[in-house]
Amino acid sequence: MFFNKGSKESSIATRKKNWSSKEVMLLVALGSVFGVIYYAFVQLFFVLQILLGPYADLSQHILFGAWLMVAPIALAILKRPLAGVFAELLAALIEVIVLASPFGARVIISALIQGASSESAFTLTRYRKDNLFVFMLSGFFGGLFPFFYSALINDWFSTDLFYLRLILQLISGVLIGGLAAKLLTDALIKTGVLDNFIHVEQKNNAS
Hints:
InterPro entries: ABC_thiamin-permease_prd. The chain is an all-alpha fold.
């Protein structure tokens, strides 16, 4: 009797640690949808470059937060370690392999860095909180750490626009990768399509 009970508890714990097929399918769906959305923002990036003229290079920082959105959304819904990284990676794979992104394979490397950076905010809460502050902190980290990676490979440190680039990217991360992602998550929760994944308090908070 004692050993059977222990075995049952162990089995429950194992199931909680493992990803369910529904969770995997949701992650793939999010990654696929945002892969298309991210590609659309690439096209907007080219348009914005034309509009900004001599400051065309700043367009990537203005729109940067858009390429962070899927990580906090996936993390808020699934509350699983690495969900943000996997979601960003899947979106990048859709961009590169299916939609033939003009930026090529480097998008995948960027996605891993962006996903890990955005997820760090949720990691600090042990994946227990998904309020607006956590989302905006996710967008801040998602803009901050990838910026220094890009600054290193593009040699931005010695340029006059270094701090402007950084500020624009952080603002974009917080507002688009954080606030907009939170609003979108709440909107999805209200539709009821995520009822099998979210907790009761999440639905109440989104109301």
